[in-house]
Structure formats: C-alpha cells, structure tokens
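Reopening closed ticket. The problem is back. First fold of the pair:
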Amino acid sequence: MMNLSDHIKKRMKDNFLMKRNMPIQRDMKTLNTSSLMMNFGSFYIPKMGKSNPMGEDAHFISKDHQTIGLADGKSDWKKEGIDAGEYARQLMNNCLVVLDAKDREIVYPQLILEKAYLNTKVDGSSTACIITLTGESLNVVNVGDSGFMLFRNGIMVYKSSTQKHGINYPYQLGKNDHCDDSSAAEEFIIGVRAGDWVVAGTNGLFDNMYASEMEVAMKVIGEAGCLEPQVLAQVLADLAFENSLDYTQGISPYSQAALKEGYPIPIKCGGKPDDITVIVAHILPTQGHTLVLGNIENSYSFQPYLPKKSPTVNVMDPIVMKRCKPIKKGMKTLNERSLMMNIGSSYIPKKGKSNPKGEDAHFISKHHQTIGLADGVSSWAKKGIDAGEYARQLMDNCLTILYTKYMEIVYPQLVLQEAYSNTEVNGSSTACIITLTDESLNVVNVGDSGFMLFRKGNMIYKSSTQQHRFNCPYQLGKNSHCDDPSVAEEFIIGVRGGDLVVAGTDGLFDNVFASEMEVIIKQIVGTDQPELLAQILAEQALENSLKTEGVSPYSQAASMEGYRRSGGKPDDITVVVAHILPPNHLL
C-alpha cells in the first residue's frame, strides 16, 4: 500500500517538473485587490535644529503605492566638506521618481532601491529602508541601521535586523570605494494583520528608545483616546530626542551596543544625539476605510524643534522612571502560553551510509518549545577535521544548557553564547535556535541555516542569510578566521495558531524554492504530521540536489555572484517542521 509521503510526491511530480526551469514566485495582490491598507504619519527632528533644518535624514510616504522609505546620510562626510544629507535626499527623491514611473499596482522595493541608487550621483552615502504593503505582507528591502518594528496588540513582535561593519559603522549606499551597493541589501517578507502598527525610523530613534518604551507610549496614548499615526510619530520622536540628550545617566540601546563592543562607561553612556525620523503606519482593513490616492509626500522639511506635546498625552513620566536599566517585557512561562509547537524532523546525510552522521546536527526540546540546527562547514575536511563533530557538540551543549538552566523561559542568544564557549573541538558551523514564547518566535541565527514561516500555505517570512561571500557563511568556531556569537542576528517574529515553521540547513534552502514548499504544504494541509512533512521536504531537497540541469536557489544565487552553475547542490539536508497550535490541541 502506498504511504501518504509517496502518494503526495506522486501527485506533485508533474507540477515540479513543469516549473523547475525557472524560479517560481507567488502572485502578489494589486492595490485594488488588497484586503489591507496603511494609514501614515511621520515626524522629523534634525539634530542641529534651526542651524541645519534639513539635517541628514530623508524620508518619503507614498499613499498611492502604500510604500514608505527612509535614509540616514552618514555624518562622517562633513569632514570632507560634503553634506551627506544631500545624498539621502536625492536617493529618496529618486525612489519617488521610480515609483511614479511605474503603475500603481505592484511595487518591488528591491528594484526601486536598485534604480534609485544607480540614479543618485552626488557624493556621500546613506542607509536605506523601503517598505511596501502587498496583500497581507510587508515587502521590505533594508541597508544599514535604519529599519522598523512591528507591534501587535501593543506588543513588539518583530524588529528588523541591522547591518553593520562595526559599531557606529553601518552598511551604507554610496559610490565611494568604502561604501556598499544595493546588492548588500537585506530583502524579506513579513506577514501582517489588521490592527498592527509599523514604526519605522532611522537610528536616531532606535539608538535612543527601547521597544518596551514604545509599548508604554502606545498604551498611554491609546488610553488618552488619540492613538493616531501622526500623534504617535511625534510623541516617539520627542521621546527619542529627550533620551538622546541624557549623556550621563541610564542605559540606552546605543550605550548597550557600545558596551557589548568593549567601550567602557562613561565613554558611551546615555543617549546619542542624532537626526530623528519616525514614520508610523497603522494597518487597517480596506473595507470600511477610504484609501485616498494621488497623495505622495516627500518629507525632509524642518519640523518645529522640541514641539510641545498635547496636554492630554502625558507619556514621559512612566518611561523616564524606567530609564535606569534596560526594559524587557515579560515572557510567559510554559504553563501560561496560548500556543505550542508540535515538532518533527528529518535528516538525510550527503554521503548516506558511508557517513551516516554527516556534518549537520539538530535538537528538539518539546519541553522548552525550542529547536536548534547547525551545519558543520565542510572545508575543514581538507585539514582532516570533521566539522560535523563541531556541529554535534555545539547542539549537544545547547541541550545541556537548556535542561540545566532554563526550565521555563528560554533566551536563545544566551543559550548559544554559553554553548559556543563550551564547544572546544576543532571545526566550525552555522547555528540557528528558535524558541516559542507565547505568540512569538524568539530567534538567534548565525550563517545560512534558518527558517521560513508559512501561513495558510503561503510563505510570509524567510530569515536572512549571513555570509562573508558566496558559499562562505558566517560560522561559529575558535579559529581566527571564524566568527563568534556577537555576529548573530537576534529577532522576534509574531505567530498565530495554524502557522508552520520550516527550519533547515542550506541543504534544504539551496535546493527547494519557497513556492515548491507551498505546493507540498497545501497538499497535506490539515494532517498535522510535522514529521511526515519534514520527511517529504527532505526527500524533495535530495531529489533536486542530484539534478544537473535547471534552476535552483543555489544556481540562482551563484549566477547573481557571477558564477555559472546549474541544477542543485548535493549536501547534508536537515529539516525541522513545527506546527503551531493551541496547547489543548496537543493533549
């Protein structure tokens, strides 16, 4: 009798053979068919006030295209007599020009940024972040340390990662030899729902305000009955400005980052004066709300310096009281959680029975609602070292730490840091640890292992990869050429019941497009068999890896770097699938 795995693979085979010649992209909803819209507000406070009212930040809001953008000109250029603010303004203006030249239906932020970058000719450099709402997802492209946070029910559920060469030295677009180009941009999609709030800003905001402070501000303004995008943008900018002037007391996100890099107090204590740009977008259903088109704003004009706050919105006191230490919102314990993960996995070593352990390793802790993956870097084999042993010891150390120190609440970044310190064998590996904390995934990631999040069968988020160059991912190890956990990307992403997490090493993601995974997931929807789904995905990755023709995610990435590759990439394949469900479903 044919088992379910064979049956599904047989039903899908023709579909895949028809589509493997080109990357497959899911249709994006046009503006007219989108079920959600964004209502915007923004506020800008230049660092130098009236003496330089334009400052070095720039931003735009296009209601027509449901798109926003920010840029932060890098101030170091003024040593050479160059106004980096002019670069940021021209870059954002060029984005608007490109948007205007296109139809008003579908926006691809990465293409907008690429063309705007090529058309920006002035000297200088800047960060850049462009966000567009498409259907029920935000499509994002980001370079540097501008970015955004996503708030749901008053709680921060996602924060975009920063890209930096060193502290105070972010990735930045520019034509100078020391600058980056648009190929360095991080591109990703994240699902949203009606009622969510997007808070985008330059580092003048995020260096001076914790997410928890923004949560307090949103709560207080909401209780005052005036939670509107423009009001929230102004209040957050005011708070960031006030915190930026605190040179001697308290800890800020900026001073915390400086301490992490080894700068002692009081050298990097308190806030960081800077231009402050805040854009707030409230996500609403299109039904029942009017979407007014034809209103495109390009905002970098001077706003009143230190504007007075509305007397009905007193958000300062509850926040100032907490500035003496970093604020962390409470994480719910295992018994309090409203969601749980049902987890299954599958592993196919590259060399099969001749090396059944391979170079991948992973763990599943159902008690801690935590999973982890590691991919030993195979180049160590040239030195007679089994990198798989490093990956296995790293994951084993993670489990040991979980069961000896974290019986309820798990902090993945601390687990990875201690596990790395305790791993003594030669070699190196990538690493990804994911834990479910109430309605969010708390993630730490190094290298090109990672995960995708699927909702209703569609991929709504993919974790980014970290690599020094093509086929050379960030990797943990004690060798001088390896990385340590300080390079790890840490983030939180909101989830809901019914979501599927598909985590894997690059043996999966180099060989299977997200669109292929969507087909597989939709074929077995409702079965709640994560082990089976993991097995099917691993088998599909193996089948694709052995092909010598056609397009794969690996060959596509190689082509972008100037290498000629076709077909898949043979590798160890690890797949961990987690189905997110209410706890009573698992009883």
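Second fold of the pair, where the issue appears:
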Amino acid sequence: MATNKERRNDSNVSDKDNLSLSDQSLSNIKYKQYPIEPKVYPQRWTQLAYLSLLALLSDWICFSLAASPSSFANAYPNSSAADLIDIFLFTNVASCFLVTDVVARFGLGACIKGAAAIMTAGCLLRSGLPEMSLFANAVSDTGLPAASGMAETSASLVQAVADVLPDSISDLISADTLTEASRSAGLEPYPLLVLGTILVGFAQPYFQCTPPMLSATWFASNERATATATALNFNQIGIAIAFLVGGQMAQNEVGIHDYFALITVLCALVTLGTFLQFQEKPPSPPSYSEIEKLIRGEKEPPFLVSVKKLFGTPGFSIPLAAFICSISITNIVGTFIDEVMERGGITNQLGIDLAGAGFEFAILLGGIIIGGYVDETKQYKSVTLACLAATMLFVIPLGLTDHMLGNEPVLLVMALLGLGLSCGPIQPINAELAVDVTYPSDETAVESVQQVGGNLVSALLVPVAEWALKQDYEFFKQVRPLDSDIRGDVVLLFTVAAATIIYFTTFDSPLRRTMADSEEESLDSDDTTPDVSSGIYASEERGASQAREFVS
C-alpha cells in the first residue's frame, strides 16, 4: 500500500482518494498553515521553580505542627494542631471553587503573585506583626541611613491597627489570652493563628490547581507530565520539611515562635522573587495543541459550566477516580504515620519523622521519574494500572504482622518508600490524562475538580481509617507459619486501590490533546497513526476517525 507521502505526490490520484487524504490529515494541514512553530523558553524552569516552591511553603505551613502536636497543645490549651489543619483544608476546598474564574479573569501571573502575597500576610499573622518592630530594631542597629526611624514607624503601625479594631476583636486577640509561657515567648493569640491559616488555605489552590495550566502554557508536549508532577507533588516536600524541621524546632513555646518566624522569612523571600521573576506567558506557544487553542480564540466558561462540561466528556471520570484514590491513600498514610510506624516496631520519634519525610520525598521522586516516562510514551493507562497494582502490594506490609516472624521494621520502611514511589505519580499522571481527554478544556478547572474531589473524599475517609486502625483481622490461625493479622485501615486502602483498578480498566477515550500535538508527524508515517487511547499504534482507519472527531 502506498504511503501518505506517496499519495500526496501522485498527481493522478482520484477525487475519492483526495477526500480520504483530506479526512486523514485535516488538522495536520491546518498546522502547515500556521505562521508560528512551537517553541520553548528557558524561563519555563523559573516558572516551575517558583510555583513548586510556593506549593512547598503552603503545605509546610498547613502541616507545620503535625510533628509536634503536644508542644502546640501546651502553648495553646484547649486547641490542637489538627484543628488548624482542618481549618486549612476546608478553606482550601472553598477556594478551589473560585480559582478557575479568578485565573481566567486576571491571568496566571497576577493570580500567582497575589496568592503569594496573601500567603505571606497569613504567615505574618501567625508569626506576629509585633516582630516587625524587632526586625526594625535589628536593622536600625546596623546604622544604615535607610533604617532611621524604621522601628518607630513599625511600632506606630502596629498600634494603629490595634486602635481601629472593635473592642471585642481587640480583646480576642489580646496577649492576655495567652499562657504566661506563650506570652513570654512572643507567640500570637490563637485567633490570629486561625486567621493566618485561613489566608494561607485560601491562597494554596492557586499553586495547587494551576500546574497543568503552567505545563500547557510553557512546556513542550514531551515535558508536560514531568512538569506537572514536579509542581503538583512538591507540596509533599513541604510536609517532609514539617516533619524534619518542625519536629526539631517546635518543641516548646520559644521554639514554636522561632519556627513560625523562619517560615515567614522564607515565604517573604520566595514571594519577592515571584513578583520580580514570575511571568504571565511565553512569547509564543510551546506545542501545536496550544497553537490550536490560540488560533481558535478559546474563551474559558465559568467554573460551574466547565464542571458540567467536564463530567459530560467521556473518560473524564476515570482519571478523576484514580486521582482521588491516590490522594486519599497518601493523605491517610501521612496522617497516621505515627501509628503505622509504631505497630511495625519503629517507636523513636526521629525514626518516625525520617520515615515520614522519606515517604513524601518518594512521592515527588516517583512522580518525576514515572512522569518522564509517560511524557515520552503517552502510556497513561498501562502506567496507571501498574502503579495501582503496586500500590495494592505495598500497602499490605503497613498493617500485616506474621506472628511467627514478628515486627519487621526494614520491610515496613521499604514498603512505605515503595508506596510513595508507586502511589504518588498517579496524581500528576491522571491530572494530565484528564486534561488530555477533555482538550481544549480549561486546565485549571480540571485540576480544581480533582482537588475538590480528592480533598473531600480524604476528609470523609480519615475518620473511617481512624476507626479501622483499631480493627484487627486474624487469618490462617491454625497454620502456625502463616498465622497473621492485618489492620483494618490497610484493608480499607487495599479495597480503595482494588476498586479503582477495576474501574480504570474501562478507560478507552481518545487523547485529543496528544492527537493535536502528534498529527504534524502523521503524514510521513506508513499506514499507522498513534492510538492515543492506549499509547500503541493502531490502524489508519481508526486514526483518521479520531482526527475527524477532534476537528469537529
């Protein structure tokens, strides 16, 4: 059979053959007429670095006291670090409903900068505005001319804010509400911690829901999954830092004060860099799919309209289910890491903190490595199924005890790291898959829906997992070498992964964005075109029908 190129050069080809060729290559012909070619710019790495660092900081702030709950309870009686995490997560979910429309209205660059400023303001409330006076005094001691009067100005600012507040609020945030030790350490009243946490929780979705949009806007088609994995999973490093740094610094009231101050300084520095270096968009699109959207002049609909359209698109709910499965499992394991480690024989707090940090680092590393493979192969389905199967395998040792062997701490840690490497990548891979099957949808709307679903299901499963932790199921009781018991929370996680695998096997939707990027090369191939529903090559007829579906 003649190749596509031979048909194109044959002047005696029939009208019927010409029509068939036009159908096959309709979108490709459009690309040949484009006045620009895809191009990527070094600035994309700066964009990715700032978005990743902001995501890291936001989750560090959220889980900043997760490793030292008793110290926080001593500093703030009748309050708990878990309460602040709940407040953060509920605010996060509410903000997810707004982020799509706000980004569409003001642009990615302005929204990232604004959210960074809001997060910094939240940090200042948590670490304390009066510390501005201390900082000003330190600067004044340097003798620099610009520092003259800075201490007086900042002190006056603090007093002015206190004067304009209603008495009921002033009394609420008065230092008199603190314990003597907390007041001496310079800690802020609990209501200011809550307000600061709300601000950070409101800001986080602008770093959490925009990685697919950043990847599509700045990165080539063979870089997108890796870029999304990096930005989407970098918040896990923030949680790891909370375990390592928070566990060591926040051991008493003074330590908590210094810890909050450190976070504020780092957040302010990253925010300053964001304002100076983060850009709205590149001079030209990085891929043919983005050129197509540019030529079409796509206007993103309101968020609720986008949600209805997304759920009406065949194939969208399947990567959504995989995303929810992954985020639920990693959140539950991270939440109950102490119990998981202790029942496996690891009781030292430093060992628990290191294991928790290793789990979070494994999530990021797995996302980058496996996301890079998916970038090259587009094997979304087979890779996701493999990751889900590995997830099922690695959760079992987290709650399985063989009575004859006893605790196996090494096996437990290896399983925990394996779980991070296999379960973590499911989120960014399926974020990209959902964007691909719904092209040319709004990437931010897609990720917002996934984040809302993931966080809500996680919130519902956490109390179920907490109950299941206390359930113990024994089997092979009469066979001594096999006599074992397994905890209920592991049974829950195994069931979630198994149900997701069964559902994911039904995925068979075309990858419209991958088609838009790959059609440019299809004319020079021999009678095959990428079968973008599975990542393998299929017949010419199927490729032609998918191209017609995309163009329509």
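Update: turned out to be a display glitch only; the data is intact. The two ends are 28 Å apart (CA to CA). Confidence is low (pLDDT under 50) at residues 1-32, 130-142, 165-173, 523-552. Please close again.
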